[in-house]
Design a protein that fits this description.
binds 2-acetamido-2-deoxy-beta-D-glucopyranose; mainly beta; Jelly Rolls; signal; 14% helix
Length: 148
C-alpha cells in the first residue's frame, strides 16, 4: 500500500502529540514536609519553622521514628537543609520495602544550618506506578524537608 502525503503527515502529528503528553507527565511535584499525604509516626516528630533561611522541616530524635510517603510517578528526590557538623542526623531509606541504605542528613564541614536544600537521595527511572518511600531514624536525629 502506498501512503499519501496527507496520511504520513497525520501519522507524524499523532506521534508528536504523544511525545508531548509524555513530557508533560514528567513534571515535578514538590511535596513539603507539612503535606498531609506524608504519614509520620505518631508523637515522634516536631515541626520547625524558625530557621534563619526560612526553611521548614519535620525532625525527630525519637528511637523508631519513621515517615512514609506514597506516590505514583517515575522519580523521587529527597531534599533537606543539611544539619551542621555537631548534629548527627541520618535516616534509613526504604523504597517499596527495599532498603536503600543509610543516608546522611548533615554536613560535617558546615557550622550552621544550610540555607539551601540538598538532594541527599533520589531514584529515577521508576515504573510509572504507585511507590512508597519510608524513612526511619538511624542516627541521633532525622529531618524531612521536601520531596519532589
Ligand atoms: C525534577 O527535579 C529534579 C531535582 O531537582 C531535577 O533534577 C529534575 O531535572 C527535575 N525534572 C523535571 C522534569 O523538571
Amino acid at each position: 500500500m502506498q501512503l499519501s502525503g496527507a496520511s504520513i503527515l497525520a501519522h507524524l502529528t499523532l506521534v508528536w502529540t504523544f511525545y508531548n503528553i509524555v513530557l508533560a507527565a514528567a513534571e515535578n511535584v514538590t511535596i513539603h514536609n507539612d503535606n498531609p499525604s506524608i504519614i509520620y509516626s505518631e508523637g515522634d516528630w516536631k515541626f520547625e519553622d524558625d530557621y534563619s533561611s526560612g526553611a521548614t522541616d519535620h525532625w525527630s530524635g525519637d528511637t523508631g521514628a519513621w515517615a512514609s510517603f506514597t506516590f505514583t510517578g517515575v522519580a523521587i528526590y529527597y531534599s533537606v537543609h543539611l544539619y551542621p557538623w555537631n548534629i548527627p542526623a541520618g535516616g534509613r531509606f526504604f523504597l517499596d520495602g527495599n532498603s536503600e541504605g543509610n543516608i546522611r542528613l548533615f554536613d560535617p564541614r558546615a557550622d550552621d544550618y544550610a540555607d539551601v536544600g540538598t538532594i541527599v537521595w533520589s531514584r529515577t527511572g521508576l515504573e510509572n506506578t504507585q511507590h512508597t518511600l519510608k524513612v526511619q531514624i538511624s542516627d541521633d536525629f532525622i529531618t524531612l524537608d521536601t520531596l519532589v
